Amino acid sequence: MQIFKYIITCLLVGCLLHTLPASATTIQLIGRVLEDGKTVRYESTAYYNVNSLLCGNADYSFEFRIIDWHFYVSGGGVDQAAGQFFTLKRIGFNVTGRGSSQDHVAVGDNAGSYRFTSNFHKNANIKIYFDLLFNNDDYILNDTDITIPPSSLLRMTSSNCYMVPAMNSKFSSYNQSAYLLKSNLSLRLESSNSVKVNPDIKTCAIDGATDQTVQLDTVFKHELDRNTTVQAGNFAIRLNCSQATATHSYIVYSDGNNNANTSNLLTLDSRSTAKGVGIQVVDETTGAAIKFAPIPTAQFIKVSQVTSFSAVNSANRYITRNYTVNYVKNGTVTAGDLSAKMVYTLLYR
């Protein structure tokens, strides 16, 4: 389930100044979760006068203002949940006084930033609102919900203010330098309340026993001396996804005797008496030996750090993945018994 890349880009010709003022005006916003369970609507707690807040109280003959906005994720101190794992999907304004209500819909947040222009009368008062959508393209949620606490830094803005003669004046029709009133004003958009988001993704169920014991074949010492790797057994992991709403499943394989193990050989139990032999698990789907990793404990996990198990869709409701267990010679072989333990963690988005 999880969040997004973090780059600042310029979307129009020319860029806003990237050096922010030493301080920024803080705007408090109230958040509420929308019906889909994964979108948070934030709206400023008060109305703000356009000319006072954004244009330095400039008093010129042109009564209308074009604001060149840049919403982005701050490079320092941004709340992790709000900044990194939620995508900016919708930005708008509730307008009172002179001017009509405006609504700006973004198709994407361009890796954390979004830039556009809006036109207001200088006496208009506005409330800022925007939607943050839980984004699971790059991250998986390893938890049941996400809390965005009070005073979280949701987004920053940097803006330029220009005067124009009419509400429908085009930003590109005027020399930007000649009509610039105030540049690079920074707003700090903070949450005023705690919001808990529960994406409510239904996952698959293990089809069969969650714990399995694989009885390994007996092999002779000379077989390992001659072949180095000898097949010892097999097993399968099966999922029933008939009730799932998740679209993809992922898996992390861990060493049950040594969680820190990142090799492709399991650590033998202390009661094992065989020497010079390791146990390897091969994923028959890829043909590669599994590389083990610690059991994931972070709330958000990068998709790139886990193994894809299977897509989940209407044509793929019952999923089976097969594995082969091998003995692998890794030293001077001494005959005896051996056993090991593998733990797997399934994740969904």
From TrEMBL:
The lineage of its organism: Bacteria, Pseudomonadati, Pseudomonadota, Gammaproteobacteria, Pasteurellales. Residues 202-348 form the Fimbrial-type adhesion domain. This is Fimbrial-type adhesion domain-containing protein. It comes from Psittacicella hinzii. InterPro entries: Adhesion_dom_fimbrial, Adhesion_dom_fimbrial_sf, Adhesion_dom_sf, Bact_Fimbrial_Adh_Pro. Keywords: Fimbrium, Signal. The keyword Signal applies. Belongs to the fimbrial protein family. PANTHER family: FIMBRIAL SUBUNIT ELFA-RELATED, FIMBRIN-LIKE PROTEIN FIMI-RELATED. Pfam families: Fimbrial. The keyword Disulfide bond does not apply. Its main location: other. GO terms for cellular component: pilus. Residues 1-24 form the signal peptide. It is found in: Fimbrium. One of its GO terms (biological process) is cell adhesion involved in single-species biofilm formation. Transmembrane segments: none annotated.
